[in-house]
Specification:
alpha+beta, five-stranded antiparallel sheet, 10 helices, 9 strands, binds protoporphyrin IX containing FE, oxidoreductase
């Protein structure tokens, strides 16, 4: 079967090296695949799948002005990985980024890496690990970010290219950060409607980078806790509350321009069209929360649990009246009016990583927020929450990272980080 031929039950092709070569060379077959099959599978609704209702098996376009996975309608599952760059050689790092980009193009279109998982070269390990064979693209998005460590003096010659906005996050009251779950030189956020597709993507990127980068920490997530599509049903977090009601919508171009995308004027040039990502692993003391009365839970959040309506209002989408909430309610403290207009696009996921050895669930919120500048976004909001939020009795921030997320990959010649390294 040729590389661009699809199995009748799936959009993910089975690949045979001999068949590909038989079609007149791998390059030719690959070109045809990119132009035909992949394009046909791309989700409707713009360059990064922002359409509110998307076919959960479809593909999201990889190329565009912005990276997909930010404004894109939130997928059901997450595999997030932070990498340490272990090579000291700039050329080797660039080579990995180029290979990653080509692999990401293929995987987001529902294709196997390289020559696939079942090439006829039985003597060599296959290019692709194979667990996504037969699975649909599942709206997989792969979003890369560069952490502060990459810009350190004496590493890759990038010390003059570090954006001012890529700050080292300050310590916040109550933080109990585990360094093994924090930081990282490079991150990749893989989101998909099928967890196996997301895990396959991270696994194959890690494999490509073997010997040059190593996974520092990673996080699986489920049950998206923030919707970026206002008309969809708002998901609930592990505390049982609707989460993401008042979020920046992926279709709200005005708000995205104002609060999420870095503009050419913000500097540096290589970040124009990009964004800054803050990731926080927030552990929830679920058992304590579950013993708290409904009234207290609602007082803490500032919304009712059933409908999700703000206090004093009856519908979820009603405009919050902050004064109707307790002064230290979460929503009151996090609202833009309490933070000089600060806003971010939240895109977090729930996690449950087994138990902690004391019979308690190791569960919580893997908080992901994209913004134009963390100094006007996450930092002031978290400073206020960390000091006053009554929710703090039930949560603890245990992991933290910040990344500069570059703009989108323009076409098949472009690669992740090209403008940073040029
Ligand atoms: C485990 C920790 C957290 C939980 C359980 C939680 C839960 C919630 C819930 C239930 C809402 C109301 C629904 C909504 O409008 O989305 C909300 C709103 C919000 N949260 Fe959180 N949140 C957590 C952490 C954070 C953090 C760390 C930040 C930022 C630093 C944050 C920022 C916001 C913002 C900006 C809103 C919207 C406020 C508005 O405009 O009305 N949250 N959160």
């Amino acid at each position: 079967m040729a590389d661009d031929q699809l199995d009748e039950n799936t959009e993910r092709p089975a690949t045979s090296r001999r068949a590909v070569l038989g079609w007149g060379g791998a390059g030719l077959a690959l070109g045809a695949a990119t132009a035909g099959g992949a394009a046909a599978a791309v989700a409707s609704g713009g360059d990064s799948g922002t359409a509110p209702v998307a076919d959960s098996g479809a593909a999201v376009a990889f190329h565009g002005a912005h990276q997909a996975g930010i404004a894109t309608a939130v997928q059901d599952r997450l595999h997030f990985a932070a990498f340490d760059v272990t090579t000291e050689d700039r050329a080797e790092l660039i080579a990995v980024l180029k290979k990653w980009t080509r692999a990401a193009e293929r995987m987001t279109a529902g294709r196997s890496v390289g020559e696939g998982a079942v090439s006829e070269l039985a003597e060599a390990p296959p290019d692709d690990t194979g667990e996504a064979l037969g699975l649909k693209p599942s709206r997989l998005t792969l979003t890369i970010g560069f952490g502060p460590g990459l810009f350190e003096k004496g590493r890759f010659g990038l010390e003059d290219r570090r954006p001012e906005a890529l700050i080292d996050l300050p310590a916040f009251p109550g933080d109990n950060l585990d360094k093994n779950r924090s930081g990282g030189d490079i991150c990749v956020q893989a989101c998909a409607d099928d967890p196996q597709v997301a895990v396959h993507a991270i696994r194959n990127l890690a494999r490509i980078a073997f010997g040059k980068m190593a996974v520092r920490w990673s996080q699986l997530g489920f049950g998206k806790t923030s919707s970026t599509t206002p008309d969809a049903q708002t998901p609930r977090n592990m505390m049982g509350f609707k989460d993401g009601t008042r979020n920046i919508a992926g279709t709200d171009k005005k708000a995205l321009t104002k609060h999420v995308w870095v503009s050419g004027k913000d500097g540096p040039g290589w970040m124009a069209g990009g964004s800054y990502l803050v990731a926080r692993r927030i552990r929830m003391h679920i058992e304590t929360w579950d013993r708290t009365s409904l009234k207290e839970q609602e007082d803490i959040i500032g919304r009712d649990k059933g409908e999700g309506a703000p206090f004093g209002k009856s519908k979820e989408r009603d405009e919050p009246n902050l004064k109707a909430m307790l002064p230290d309610a979460h929503v009151r403290l996090a609202h833009p009016d309490s933070n000089s207009g600060a806003q971010m696009l939240r895109r977090g996921y729930s996690f449950t990583d087994g138990t902690d050895g004391l019979g308690r669930l190791d569960a919580g919120l893997f908080f992901l927020a994209y913004q134009r500048d963390v100094r006007d976004g996450f930092v002031p909001v978290q400073q206020s929450l960390a000091r006053k939020d009554t929710l703090n009795e039930y949560i603890q921030h245990v992991g933290s990272a910040i990344f500069a997320v570059p703009p989108g990959v323009r076409d098949t010649r472009d690669w992740w980080g090209r403008e940073l390294f040029s």
